[in-house]
Amino acid sequence: MKSWTQLYTVVIGFLVLNIVLLYWLTKYFA
Amino acid sequence: MSNIDWTVLAVTLFAIVAYGMWRSRGTKDLSGFLLADKELPWYHVGLSVMATQASAITFLSTPGQAYDDGLRFIQFYFGLPLAMVLLCIAFIPIFKGLNVYTAYEYLEKRFDNKTRTLTAFLFLLQRGLSTGITIYAPAIILSTILNIDINYTIIFNGAIVILYTVYGGTKAVSHTQLFQMGVIFAGLFLAAYMVVHLLPEQVSFVNALKVAGKMDKMNAIDTGFDWNNKYNLWSGLIGGFFLQLSYFGTDQSQVGRYLTGSSVAQSRLGLIMNGLVKIPMQFLILGIGVLVFVFYQFNQAPIFFNQTELKKLEQSQYAGELKALQQQYAQAGEEKKEAVLLLSSALDANNDEAISAAQRTTESAEKNSKAIRSQMTELMKKNNPAANVNDTNYIFLSFVTQKLPIGVVGLLIAIIFLASMGSAASGLNSLASTTVVDFYQRMYGEGNGRFSDFNVSRISTFLWGVFCIITALYASKLGNLIEAVNILGSLFYGTILGVFLVAFYMKKVNGTSVFIAAVIAEAVVVAFWWADVVAFLWLNVLGCIIVMLIAWLISRFQKSIAQ
Q: In angstroms, what separates the C-alpha of A11 from chain B's closest C-alpha?
């Protein structure tokens, strides 16, 4: 169970990372 | 297209279909045909789920959308990873635990037959039409590019899909999808490399992105909130979450994919893989569209990317006016190219004043080009009021066939065919599953019908295939096709998701309450869509919330009467 929770955290963390990188991309190249 | 390209196209298609059929040989019962005997590993499930969602429209429309509108469509997928997590936690254990063939089967166990039949019917309606569009969308574009009659392209594409889905069922679908995704990824990276390679020597990759940014194409994230803005961070995260949750949780074309996993863990890992890879993959496809846009800032773009419509105008009484407009467009293109080159070198030199000046010149040159183009589309309308003046879906393939080297063209066209076949195959398989399990078996009892359930599955796969081909043959202009499919989904998904969420989390609500709630919710969603009250992604949220709310109110009401 614990390992599944960790895996879900990785998925959500990766989504946040994607959004932050894309936000940076938007601002940097604006 | 050259002979080499035709060979690459034919060999790729033949090899993949033959492989899928070979791997699925010997399928002779319902479990094998509909669930691949539940023995597939996680990467198979993951790639199959991705191949089902990524239709040809993804590869045709998405780069064109980025060309017109920039990167902002990426936000549409932000809800997907969140939906994958909830599916892994709540949906997969229930579906796998009850050993169901279709998602709707579960609804009878939880509620009653009418709720199961209503949701299965809404699914058949929605998926039958969308699978038709899935076949039609690439056919219309491929027929233009390859100069083949559209009806032949539709029938050819549809017939291949029918052949291997009728022969091997889900196994054939999954095994072909595994290789389809491999070829698709290879082709995408190759296309990305080629477009960067084709940029002028003095323009580096980073410089190209900077130019795109100054021309409003790097608009990946919009944090502003607006109910009517189709793509912003919030509609993507919230509306997108509901859409993806309904799509993956209640649409049999997806549920049927992850039910093939050999265990709960393998099915979950497949969806997690999808949750991790989807956004980067869409970013790659949109990024290619942005780079194609930059490419056409330095190279003369055709005045209109759909050559068939353009040719019709060339052969009309307006040919003279068109020629004059084309000359003006070429002149405007030259001016724009100079302006963009200035912008690029100003960006290189990091000179703010020069950047602003060059940006203003570029903007005015771009405006000028757009004005000439819209004069041309007006002329097109004048010549033929039914003319299709939206060429977004033609941009990418037009670039591929005209600018990429021999061999690569055949491979990229194969990708479009494969993607279309991958999602149409899942569509047909799920339509057959629902018809057999939720209607045929329900009517006659398991194995009690006049024909064996396995044979009925094959026959219904074939008949749904024919239905989808006919839908494709009669599909009219739908504007941007990827949006048309998503809007169609959004009309039904919210309600269906609402029914499932009530089933999972509101244990006291009975079948009649949820049935009435679903009918009301569907009417409200259609009315909201008809009156154009909110952007389509919100329809998913609306349908779902109305079902849950009304079902709860009715059950409270029933309880108070009973007391």
A: 6
